[in-house]
Structures are given as structure tokens and as C-alpha cells.
What we know:
The chain is α/β, with parallel strands linked by helices. It contains ten helices and ten strands. The chain has one domain: Glycoside hydrolase/deacetylase (TIM Barrel, Alpha-Beta Barrel), CATH 3.20.20.370. The chain has helices at residues 25-37, 45-48, 68-76, 87-90, 102-107, 117-125, 145-163, 179-187, 219-225, 230-242; strands at residues 6-10, 12-13, 22-23, 41-42, 55-61, 81-85, 129-132, 169-171, 192-194, 211-212.
Amino acid sequence: MRQRxxxxxxxxxxxxxxxxxxxxxxxxxxxxxxxxxxxxxxVTAAEVLDNRRRTLHVTFxxxxxxxxxxxxxxxxxxxxxxxxxxxxHAEGGLPLDVPELRQRAEQAPSELATMSWDALRELADRxxxxxxxxxxxxxxxxxxxxxxxHELRRSKEQIEAQLGRRCRFLAYPYGEDDGRIHAAAQAAxxxxxxTLGTAGGGLERFALGRVDIYRGDGRLRFALKTSPLRRPAxxxxxxxxxx
Length: 243
């Protein structure tokens, strides 16, 4: 099975925070409208598994509070959304405090504040799919089998207990995954899992590719990143360089 659905991955949404992670709300809406005009049909995360051409799903990693405006716009556009949350931060809507973002958190703590359980519950009631982004946003390949099992199973259990509904989907932090992690995700009871780009080997249902979108992706770059010809073009370019 070769994945045909286009799955976008966003993080923060802010018009005033100029960090690469933060896409402007108007820009995000324009990007989705442009894909709709090009014939992409919005589908749910579950429908991504149907593997149909010209289908579109939108995801947000980290469950930052500032994505709320974008979610409202996507609802107006009839575009299903999945938000992936780290359960340790949802306890109090804490800023995402991973080492890679520590300096940014000191400079703009409100922009990195995450959604609380109450906020996630409200989204779920509105029809937004809430998935796991693990407990603490670790680099999964660096974990022992026991640590990996805890991050995947515990986060799933917490989301299900807090929201009163199944947690079916997982997104790997940093898009880091391999065959061992795919097997652990399956064993933890997830329906499927998303990475960034595409992963080689493992279980394909647990390595669903996404296109990550950042503030610096202007119109041309966005068009290239989301083009169905992007992968074959890159492959041909690699062959040409090899020669």
C-alpha cells in the first residue's frame, strides 16, 4: 500500500509570533482553501487508511492553545482535524518544555502553552480527533522497551480516561520512528500512527507519512511540498546526482 492521502502537519498558529513553528492563521486557511480548489477532498484520520487519491487531512502536533483560531476556520471549511497531545502537559496546560524548545519557551511562554484536559475535552465534543503524542515528547528511538511501552500505553490510557472515548491514533515526536516503534504502537492498541515524511520498513499503517508545514513555507514552497510529483522528482534528482 502506497499512501495517497495528503496529511498536513502543523504545530503552532500565530500571526505575531515569528518562530518557524508558527504559521499564521490566515496563511493556514489560505493553504487549505488552495488545496480544496485543486480537488483535494477533506477526510477524517480513519479515512486516510482508505488510501484514496486526492484526499486531505490536517493534523496539529503538541496541542498548543494558539491553534484554536485555525480550528474554527477549518470547521467552516468542513475539514476534519486531529490534534496530538502530550498527556503530561495536559494536566495543567503547561508550556511544552522539551530541551529543543526551552529557549523559545523562555522568550514566548504563552505561545508554547498547551491545551488542558478541559480544552481537549471541548475539542473532542466538537468532533476533533484527539490522538496521542506520547506522555512527555521524548525521542522514542532512544528509549528502552519498557520506557517506550510506558510512553505509548500510558498516554493512550490517560486520553481515554479523561475524554471518555477511544484514542485511536498516535504521532511520533520529532517524526522519529522505526520498526521496533511501529510494533510497540501496534501492541499498545493504536489503530494507526503518523510520522513525518515517510519511514522505511516496519508496519505501513504505523508509518503514515505527513508533510510538515512551517512559517517559512511560502506559496511556491508549499505547492512543491504538497505536490503529488514531489517524491518522484526527488528520487529522480537523487539518481541524477548519483551519476
